[in-house]
Task: inverse folding
């Protein structure tokens, strides 16, 4: 498929279930290309940084393939970027998973382990796996012009992660979920860069709506 | 308390969805992809596909089923049965699965748990434990409850967590397919000793069984097969029951999303 044929380019760096993301976008009528080619990535109309696995390993693979630079080039052009799960976490300055690792530095903050104790000193199970409701208390509550634009507060989406972003600047925080008293950043947005901690491609119809709305940003 | 997950479980003997009692006496039920789609549309939180003859036959047909299922089903899908190596995990994930569940190979080579967790993340590595009550405790079985490992279930659950498993799928072989209620003592014993989520499986016959597994057993998720396949319950009935019993679950919006 030629580059101009693709609405969405998904970065293929060996870290994630790319097929689910591809099928999600295809379901909402978009043409998708999976690529690890820096020039295709930096010239994309819309770019997805997916990812599961560890922060350090993800960054290492991106850098090894020359894709961290391609990502920065892409972002400078102002087109929409969406990071999902680990892809969202790597947007931040650094991550503390298995040692300290430098991130892409596109959104200020660091990624650290979810506390394994609740406020009442009960055990919190890690990973955080399952469906949690999106809330926007203490956030930039304006979801218009974001991929959450057609969602309602309280809509449920699917999370699976052990680390979370500690954001510097609540203006970048679009939404959180309340995990047994702990507010976990669920969606972040800074200019043309969006990050989702949850998996829209695994969040049923609501998730597909998010993918569709991202395609129309 | 987190929202518990309602997981629809499909036991597959390719190309069919089947159901047995204590993993024996399999009956054909239908096309697994169609059932997966039906449960997705009913609001299942996840789908679990188990290839129950994996140790005996070649696997491509299962991967085809996963492939066609994930075309239409946009919730997490776990694949289990016959996964023995990183290569097997890779092909399951490439077919569209999000996680794999491993029993036999983990018992034979516990290091595989760590390998999978390190390569794909612990969220991808579900340790499947098939428990049978023997004398004074539960013993871990493999090959669909046929072979005894001599390993104590409680010790194995703890060890599995330490090795990197992100979840435990805990099936009571004694109750599996009987619809006579879950082994609540077993669920309680395992949830007591691990801090990773535990999916309770085997024996659900009615709504009350689900309530007990969660409220007394402290299960984080329930795996439901028999009562769904035979249309004794729908996923939505289970969800409504949980809401009535103050068991936290995902709420669906009006249009069923």
Result:
């Amino acid at each position: 498929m030629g580059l101009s044929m693709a609405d969405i380019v998904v970065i293929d760096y060996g870290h994630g279930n790319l097929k689910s993301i591809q099928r999600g976008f295809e379901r909402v009528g978009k043409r998708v290309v999976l690529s690890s080619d820096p020039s295709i990535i930096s010239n994309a109309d819309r770019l997805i940084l997916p990812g599961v696995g560890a922060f350090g390993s993800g960054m290492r693979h991106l850098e090894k393939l020359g894709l961290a630079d391609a990502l920065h080039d892409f972002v400078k052009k102002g087109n929409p970027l969406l990071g999902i799960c680990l892809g969202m976490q790597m947007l931040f300055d650094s991550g503390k998973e298995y040692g300290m690792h430098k991130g892409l530095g596109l959104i200020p903050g660091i990624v650290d382990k979810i506390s394994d104790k609740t406020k009442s000193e009960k055990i919190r199970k890690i990973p955080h796996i399952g469906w949690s409701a999106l809330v926007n208390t203490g956030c930039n509550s304006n979801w218009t012009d974001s991929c959450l634009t057609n969602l309602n507060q309280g809509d449920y989406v699917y999370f699976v992660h052990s680390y979370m972003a500690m954001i510097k600047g609540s203006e970048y925080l679009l939404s959180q979920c309340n995990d047994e008293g702990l507010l976990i950043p669920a969606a972040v947005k800074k200019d043309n860069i969006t990050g989702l901690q949850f998996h829209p491609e695994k969040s049923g119809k609501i998730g597909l709506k998010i993918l569709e709305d991202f395609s129309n940003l | 308390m987190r929202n518990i997950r309602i997981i629809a479980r499909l036991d597959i003997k390719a190309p069919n969805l089947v159901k047995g009692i204590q993993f024996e006496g399999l009956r054909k039920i239908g096309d697994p992809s169609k059932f997966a789609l039906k449960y997705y549309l009913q609001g299942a939180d996840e789908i679990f596909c188990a290839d129950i003859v994996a140790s005996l036959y070649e696997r491509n047909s299962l991967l085809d089923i996963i492939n066609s299922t994930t075309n239409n089903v946009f919730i997490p899908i776990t694949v289990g049965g016959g996964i023995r190596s990183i290569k097997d995990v890779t092909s399951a994930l490439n077919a569209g699965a999000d996680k794999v569940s491993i029993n036999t190979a983990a018992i034979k080579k516990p290091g595989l748990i760590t390998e999978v967790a390190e390569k794909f993340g612990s969220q991808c590595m579900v340790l499947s434990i098939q428990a049978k009550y023997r004398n004074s405790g539960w013993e871990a079985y493999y090959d669909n409850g046929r072979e005894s490992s001599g390993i104590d279930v409680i010790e194995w659950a703890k060890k599995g967590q330490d090795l990197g498993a992100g979840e435990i799928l805990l099936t009571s072989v004694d109750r599996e397919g009987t619809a006579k209620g879950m082994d609540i003592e077993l669920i309680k014993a395992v949830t007591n000793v691990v801090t990773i989520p535990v999916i309770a499986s085997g024996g659900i016959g009615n709504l009350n069984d689900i309530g007990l597994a969660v409220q007394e057993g402290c299960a984080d998720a329930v795996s439901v097969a028999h009562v769904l396949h035979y249309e004794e319950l729908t996923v939505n009935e289970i969800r409504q029951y949980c809401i009535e019993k103050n068991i936290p679950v995902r709420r669906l919006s009006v249009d069923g999303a």
About this structure: The mean pLDDT of chain A is 92. Chain A has one domain: 3-215. Chain A touches chain B at residues 17, 19-20, 23-24, 27, 52-54, 116, 123, 125-133, 152, 154-156, 158, 160-162, 179-180, 199, 201-209 (CB under 8 Å).
